[in-house]
Specification:
alpha/beta, FAD/NAD(P)-binding domain, 7-stranded mixed beta sheet, 5-stranded parallel beta sheet
């Protein structure tokens, strides 16, 4: 039987391993850390009995992934838990914008902007599977559903700033779209910042924003369980360098690593031209994350925030835009946009009875050493007075700490590389997954379609590798 190796056991590496095993190859996965999953791990970071997601926490793209959805992952312990609503965005007046899963509620929630909201979202929500197959495909491809993609592309190619200015008049709508666009790590005057906001808005209504019961680790554990039925194996605490790669002597190797790591691992197997191209690859801003063990739920001033697992903290569109502009200019934001998740409201397994966890992070310049803990907590207190009184313990993860726990998070970059226009097309080079070496492919979030827990980078890389083996 032909032998294939996958380096890295994040969702993309495991997706690649499954595709290769489904094709009949003998597959082994090698993970440097003691626990598989990459950034999709759940760890006891604070106090006994409190389970915190190290990286990803809320997973719209995982539950909506065309590849993951094709697998019987529920048979291997993956159970999705939804909040009463996907997303809450509190404001300074003591209210919150709460986006409902049902797109039909848009007019009630967003008033006069509801019709425009539905016009942007409805076609992709109604045809999510078809849309996702194209939206999560390699950047350069012939769309299977060109009219859907054209409609999305016309709206999303520009900036979030332009889309909001031209289509939304209600400050509440503008604010909630700003939170969605904030996931892009882009300044709101940059192209594609609108596309990321639309993509996350579409997932709110198409698939929801759920968490896995028991934590993010349930995703890689389910993938590994399914891989095992195909004969695949995962080896942990096995860091692979150039010498180890030679000794593995695999017919085919797929790497769920960054371009920087690939150049080290591959040694002289990469051409000088490819190395020069990869050297131009840019990493995006970093994340600064704080995990909290709490004595009680977050005391939101707007009680409806407890209906959602995800809460966006940043106030108005203009405030969030200023925060992201600062990051784009290499500065920390005094009032950062904070993304928070409160999974224990709906998954009691995350904390001891009556206790809770909170996951929160903000953006920071890549590799920043500035401690953002106080700024993050000030934003939480702004919308939840008395929050600090609920804190039993906290675990702070600077960009450097994140990278030390997962080498793919270079400088705290959780997206696998900047999501700008150039790197939409050249991610990390025009070849995308191919390295030029016929038996070596890249399958990490540094390839299309980029960051997020969806496995599609690994899926597409493995499909290309198998095609070229024939």
């Amino acid at each position: 039987m032909k032998r294939a190796c996958v380096i890295g056991s994040g969702p993309n590496g495991l997706a690649a391993a499954i595709v290769l095993a489904q094709a009949g190859l003998s597959v082994e996965v090698f993970e440097a850390q003691a626990e598989p999953g990459g950034a999709a791990r759940t760890l006891p970071l604070t106090l006994p009995g409190f389970l915190h997601d190290f990286g990803s926490a809320v997973h719209p793209l995982a539950v909506g992934s065309p590849f993951f959805s094709s697998l019987p992952l529920g048979d291997y312990g993956l159970e999705w838990i939804h909040g009463d609503a996907p997303l809450a965005h509190p404001l300074d007046d003591g209210t919150a914008v709460v986006l409902e899963r049902d797109l039909g509620d848009a007019e009630r929630v967003l008033g006069a902007d509801g019709k425009a909201w539905r016009r942007f979202m409805q076609p992709m929500v109604d045809h999510w599977r078809q849309f996702a197959e194209d939206a999560l495909a390699p950047a350069v491809h012939v769309p299977h559903h060109p009219f859907l993609m054209a409609r999305f592309g016309l709206a999303g190619i520009g900036s979030a700033q332009t889309l909001v200015r031209n289509h939304f008049s209600n400050p509440r709508t503008r604010a909630v779209f700003g939170g969605l666009a904030g996931h892009s790590f882009l300044s709101f005057d940059q192209p594609l910042s609108a596309a990321i906001g639309l993509m996350f808005g579409i997932t709110v209504h198409a698939v929801g924003w759920p968490v896995p019961r028991g934590g993010a680790r349930a995703i890689p554990h389910a993938l590994i369980g399914y891989l095992g039925t195909l004969g695949g194996m995962v080896h942990t605490s096995r860091r692979i360098d150039a010498q180890a790669l030679r000794e593995l002597n695999c017919l085919l190797t797929l790497c769920d690593v960054t371009p920087r790591q690939l150049m080290t691992i591959a040694g002289d197997r990469l051409s000088p031209g490819y190395r020069r191209s990869v050297a131009r690859f840019e990493h995006g801003p970093g994340a600064f994350k704080v995990d909290y063990a709490l004595s009680e739920p977050v005391p939101w001033r707007a009680a409806e925030c407890r209906r959602a697992i995800t809460v966006h903290l940043g106030g108005t569109f203009e405030e969030i835009a200023a925060s992201e502009q600062a990051i784009a200019q290499g500065r920390v934001a005094e009032r950062p946009f904070v993304l928070a998740a409160q999974p224990s409201l709906f998954d009691p397994a995350r904390a001891p009875k009556g206790r809770h966890v909170l996951w929160a992070y903000c953006h920071a310049p890549n590799g920043s050493a500035v401690d953002m803990t106080e700024r993050i907590e000030a934003q939480i207190e702004r919308f939840a007075p008395g929050f600090r009184d609920c804190v039993l313990a906290r675990h702070v993860s600077s960009p450097a700490v994140l990278e030390s726990m997962d080498a793919n998070l270079v400088g705290g970059d959780i997206s696998g590389g900047a999501m700008n226009m150039r790197q939409l097309l050249f991610r990390p080079t025009l070849r995308s997954y191919s390295t030029g070496a016929p038996d070596l492919y890249l399958c990490s979030a540094s390839t299309p379609p980029g960051g997020g827990v969806h496995g599609m980078c690994g899926y597409h890389a493995a499909k290309l590798a198998l095609q070229r083996m024939k």
